[in-house]
Task: structure prediction
Amino acid sequence: MKEKLYDFDTVIDRRGTDASKWDVADSELPMWVADMDFPTAPEIREALEKRLANGIFGYTDVSPAWREAYAGWWEKRHGLTMDRDALIFVTGVVPAISSIVRKLTTPGENVLIQTPVYNIFFNSILNNGCRVAENPLLYDGRAYAMDLAGLEERMADPQTNLMILCNPHNPVGKIWDRETLAAVGELAKRYHVTVIADEIHCDLTAPGRDYIPFASVSETCREVSITLVAPTKAFNLAGLQTAAAYVPDPVLRHKVWRAFNTDEIAEPNAFATVAATAAFSEGGAWLGELREYLWENRRFVAETLAKELPEVFVVDGEATYLLWIDVSALGGDSREIADFLQAQTGLFLSNGVQYGTGGEHHLRMNIACPRVMCGDGVQRLLKGLQAWKALHRE
Result:
């Protein structure tokens, strides 16, 4: 058995650190906000400590090493060859999406998303005066697929010129296959729709699995796409405000570059590029062990539910550390159930209603935490759901 080099079992107390996730009572357990309760890779911390030791934190440029780190990681791990000059620094994926929506649409136009999907997409669309065009995913009770016929119908609307593609898909954990992504690209080109590919969860796949970058599928997909990537989910660096946009088409790239600069989200802080460069240059071994650990947590929760409350189940997922739990057999919508769980057990989960059509009977659970914390969470979940079931038993 291969020796483990990294510790994911030690519980770190995050209370008192201004952590958004942990602004809860001592008796409560937050398993909702999508950050991890693990310290980032020691290789990244060492790079940050070295930068800290310099003691001067003035204005910072994007270094060639940052471009090489991104390009090398995606070529070696994901089979996508990036033109270094097509990479643009941005402070975060969500700020990038909002900025792109502002630049590439006018108020009243449609932005297409496929629900249930990351809830902040709605904010980026609505806050910029646009309309949400939902194309709900197809769900057969166990797995998800894209409704390509519905997608074409919505893309054909002349008011739709922008789509946000979640790849892998949050919250359902789906890795989209090459054929599906190719179909999206062809439809986008036919109907003059630009695709924002949010690929922030791409490195959090099941051990032995990889995702397919949208821009790698075909020349068409490259031409119509803006790919947003970051080390922040995989290496737990969200608070450092570091991400990148990969835009192969030069005309589209100029528009994105202008959008980011107009909105003042194109300049790194003193630690942003240092952390990203270290993550993609030296973080591979840590990430490999993390993925194994996360999938053991996933297996543990899924098997516990199957044994103790089999009518509730974890939807099969291939990516992310977010479990999508089907509670449809218990009646009521997920907002009511999530509120009940919090009140009865102190467990904070995300209700599926906020992710749009198709999320009404699901809960999202973040299992990126030490095993003992995951065990506490699943016991609270069982206790709360069994109490809900007893209360609503006919």
Observations:
- The chain has a mean pLDDT of 97.
- The chain has two domains: 20-42+284-389, 56-282.
- The longest helix spans residues 284-308.
